[in-house]
Amino acid sequence: MSAVCAALAADPVLAAHYADFRDKTEAALDPALAALIRQAVAAVHGMDVAPDESGLDDGTRTVLAYARRMPFEHTAISDAEAAAVVAHLDEAGFVAFSVLAALADAECRAALVDLPGLAGA
């Protein structure tokens, strides 16, 4: 269970909506890619090791490079970098990717500050 889900445990309806949103976001992407995105973001926060990219295609490496920039460099991402991810995932995939990377970032930050403990969960 993510730190965000744990923090929302006191409100089962909100927790269920968040979990459903998170699950639908992940379901819009290949499960292996979703796991790599989460791992890449967690590595930026020092909460996991960076994914092994040795067997990955160029498009997937481009997606992961973008994901690693989302937590602390999102304002510096260029239109060309975004277009490269869209070219690999298509527009709908790019939206799902963007949401997943943002959720992964938020969940890492929530864990780092012990959001469940702060929320009294």
From N to C, what is the helix and strand string? HHHHHH
Beta strand %: under 5%
> Which stretches are low in confidence, meaning pLDDT under 50 for 5 or more residues running?
none
How many E strands? Answer: 0
Percent in helix: over 70%
The residue-averaged pLDDT reads: 89
Instruction: Summarize the biggest pleated sheet.
Output: none
Please work out how many helical segments DSSP would assign: 6
Shape: globular
**Strand pairing plus helix content: what structural class?**
mainly alpha
Cα radius of gyration in angstroms:
15 Å
Distance between the termini: 13 Å
Structural write-up:
The protein is mainly α. It is built from 6 helices and no strands. Helix 3 crosses helix 5 (79-112) and helix 4 crosses helix 5 (79-112).
Write a brief structural summary:
The chain has 121 residues and is mostly helical. It is built from 6 helices and no strands.
Q: Which structural traits does this protein have?
A:
single chain, globular, mainly alpha
Q: How do the strands and helices of this protein lay out in sequence?
A:
Layout: H1 3-7, H2 12-27, H3 31-44, H4 58-73, H5 79-112, H6 115-118
